[in-house]
Design a protein that fits this description.
The complex is a heterodimer of chains A (76) and B (249). Chain A has no helices and 3 strands. By secondary structure, chain A is mostly beta strands. Chain A has a 3-stranded antiparallel β-sheet, with no helix packed on it. Chain B is 0% helix and 55% strand. Chain B contains no helices and 20 strands. Chain B starts with a strand and ends with a strand. Classes of the chains: A mainly beta (76), B mainly beta (249). Chains A and B meet through strand 1 of A and strand 6 of B.
Chain lengths: 76, 249
């Protein structure tokens, strides 16, 4: 069985990286495992290095995560 | 993060930021403004200390010196950020829709949740000294929220006053954390009974001297204590001012 997707929180600002969702706007496809993100990756919001994220086992609030809108909603 | 400790004031992390040069986009203020931060837990450039305590991740004792000094507007998610103004004036602006000016005794809780920005500035010439406490939320991406309140040092003298958490008069937050203040002008003993056996209690001495269980703590010393037993607090005859944070593990 595949290992469950995990959630990582930036300790500099609280930015959330959820492996299940990835961060397509930052070039990380949904399903990208934390271990597969380069060690020199930094928080896209505050620049905190990857090693200063913490894995959290926290549930989402009601209504979250909001489904991402598909790319290309309007013509470029 | 779940071990007892005593942290002396001088053993905390220390960082000093200028409002010019490489930190100029981050630190606001007049070119001679400086921001100093004593950290009880690892944060930013300080990474050789404690990682946190229970649900707490940041405890910053910060001084904004120089007109306009502080943090320019910047983004957050998830963390519940509390600020307690000890001295001076703090102007807080957030994307929940608040522009607030807080002075001694005032405090706020800003839950960044699904995304929020804030700006923290000292617009006065006099220094502002603020305690910043960050805690994890109990759920991710909550609706952002903000609340402010005031600790009345006269009315609240010589008793435990809840400031944040699930208590009368306190700012509610979405986390199993309770922050209280004990400001005493005389010697008094208090047994702080945690609400649950697995909780931890972090005691920070804002001013004066106090005994916490077997340790004597001076100003800006702190201690973290786990276990079901009450935490024995003895204030000094000259007075003691304590911030007491109870947290789930």
């Amino acid at each position: 069985m595949d290992e469950a997707f995990k959630r990582w929180l930036c300790l500099g600002c609280g930015f959330l990286y959820d492996e299940a969702l990835g961060a397509p706007e930052h070039g990380l496809a949904p399903g990208t495992r934390w271990a597969d993100i380069p060690d020199d990756w930094r928080c896209p919001d505050c620049g905190t290095p990857k090693r200063l994220f913490e894995m959290v086992e926290l549930p989402y609030a009601v209504g979250q995560p909001v489904p991402r809108t598909s790319a290309g909603g309007s013509a470029p | 993060m779940n071990a007892n400790f005593v942290l002396r004031a001088h053993a905390r992390g220390f960082n000093r930021f200028l409002s010019t040069g490489e930190s100029s986009s981050y630190i606001g203020g007049h070119p001679d403004a400086t921001l100093t931060r004593h950290s009880s837990f690892n944060f930013g450039p300080y990474q050789s200390g404690l990682r946190g305590f229970g649900r707490l991740r940041v405890f910053g004792d910060e001084t904004f010196s120089g007109t306009g000094c502080g943090y320019n507007i910047h983004p957050h998610h998830n963390f519940i950020i509390c600020a307690f103004v000890l001295k001076g004036q703090l102007t807080h602006v957030n994307t929940v829709g608040n522009i607030d000016q807080l002075t001694e005794g005032d405090y706020y809780a800003f839950s960044a949740g699904s995304g929020g920005k804030h700006c923290e500035l000292n617009l006065r010439h006099e220094d502002a000294n603020i305690l910043y406490v960050w805690m994890l939320p109990d759920q991710l991406l909550l609706p952002p929220s903000y609340g402010r309140a005031h600790f009345d040092a006269i009315a609240g003298r010589n008793r435990l006053v809840p400031l944040v958490g699930n208590a009368d008069g306190a700012i509610r937050v979405s986390q199993d954390v309770r922050i209280s203040r004990l400001s005493a002008d005389r010697a008094l003993g208090l047994d702080y009974q945690p609400g649950a056996a697995e909780h931890g209690v972090y005691v920070f001495v804002v001013g004066g001297e106090a005994r916490v269980n077997e340790e004597t703590l001076q100003a800006r010393d702190s201690a973290g204590i786990w276990g079901a037993a009450p935490v024995r607090i003895q204030t000094d005859a000259q007075g003691s001012d304590l911030l007491i944070i109870e947290t789930a593990p």
